[in-house]
Amino acid sequence: MGIKKILSSIDVYICEKETDYAIMINGVWGSGKTYFVKNKLIDHLQSDYEKQVIYISLFGLKSVEEILQNISFHVANIIVNERARKKAQINSNQNIKSINTSASTKLGFWSKLLRGSISLCPKGEKINSIIADITSDVISFENYIFCFDDFERSTIPYSELLGLIDSLAGQTNAKTMIVANEEYIISEENSQDYLKFKEKVVCLTINFENNMDEIFEDVLDGLRLEANVSPFVQDNKDLIIETFERLESKNIRTLKFALKRFEELCKKIEKHIIDKGYSKDNRNNFWGLMLKRCINMSIALRDKKIDVNEINWIEKGKLSDYNSINKDGFNWEIESLDDYDSYIWGAKFIDDYLVKYNFVDDEMFKVVKSQVEAFKRLEHLQELDILKEWYYCKTDKEIKDNFSVVMGKLESDKYDIDDYDTITDICFELAEKYFNDEEIKQRIKDNMEKNLLTKYEINNIWGNKILFENKEAREYSFELKGKVLEMIRTKKNEKLQMIAVSIDGLFDRLYEFERIYVDVGNYEEQGFLSKIDIKDLEKFLEEAEPKDIIMFRNFLLNFNRKHNIEKKFPEDIETIKLLLTKINVLLENMDISTIKKSDLRVLKSTLEQIAGNEAD
What is the chain's Cα-based Rg? Predict the structure, then answer.
């Protein structure tokens, strides 16, 4: 039932001249019942009817006497305020402090009032005299509307509570409302007693279901988020509401929790984003990811009571954010998606914060850099996105302007090599079907090949991420990739040569050699050990510690298993034979330690296997 219908139903009850029953506003925890009562209902009743609303939360109250004392305090406050207003009119309308009776009772304040340390009564009247009027029925309760909230959270037996409410509603004709989560009450063992007593006292139960769209603005105003965060949340209202609806949550407290945590995350990373020079659009795109994650995870934690131990993070390769929460069992399985490696980090630092209230700055800023850079990249490709659907452009000028931007960026080397597939496919198509100008294609090719001189050192060749519509673009793309591969091989072969020029840092260079060799896929110089002066290698064998001998042997053994030195590096076989001769000389030397002799024999056996000889 919407808020307007709920107010209308309550109006019917309030307008009845004589009633001997109470009404109940029933709704689950977090649905916004209390928020509705305090921010909508009380204002509505006190502005439209000549009655005062006495709001009392039963949460934590242990006896009916405590409730009666609270009622006395509230009624006394109303009378004091009324008498104070009359006194102000007599004394030139001077301002008199008034306490809002719709707020929760401040027992500390009222206890001071009763002790006489604070006096709000005109003409020296004592507060006790007013309470005496209440208890002796001099003051009529028909002037008040009583609202008892948190009914199920009281420790007083439901029979006693309903008995008190029956006395108010049935004997004094006071309009009385109960705000409760009946679903919780009925789940308890004594629910039958509750239902039996409720039938006598409550004649109308209004099921409260908030319409988040109706109350969203009020919630946002009440949170008073930072000046830059509040408009962003407002702009994403539809996304937030849709997420709550999809996950079947109407919990206002969860909404407040999620938005406040989101605000704190924004404050934490805002300066970092600004310092790095990212645009507002880049920032907002990143905030959008955080907002969705905060909403999803807050609902999981607070409404669905998910076990945080079920959230298992696995750090391997490139992983995406685990599946968004779904209402059919909450699948937390992590899926592997190559294009979204930063998402897993983004979700993880948010989850760590929501679950543990723990900021991990290094991890967080790593995500910011990775993800915002991705958004920044998309931002500078917007002209390509427009041209990709060029036939939807409304004017010729729109096509020409964006094409001019593409060509300008290409000529000034503003695109990454990963963009070249998309550029050729779109622009070759436009050259043929729109501009009818073949020279455009050659202009594009010339600029791309010129730019390769600054871009060929990439680790991975871009892939066919789009379905080519233009045959010539597809063929040229493969041709261009061949040229890039050739440049990479040439450059890395040069690096391999540099690695082999000296014995210093031998082991680091050995492993670097293997890494580059694997990347290149072919080592045209046909040798590595043969590039090192044999005298340096012999000196290494003479001076090396036993552990270094074994490390050298292990590398050669593993490398040979993977790459077959005899087949791919025939020049190195001659070097290996010379090393075997040197080892035999060293083994005949009685000054070498027994341990080193043992390790040299192991190395000798490995070298003989590599060279294709039988071990001694």
Answer: 40
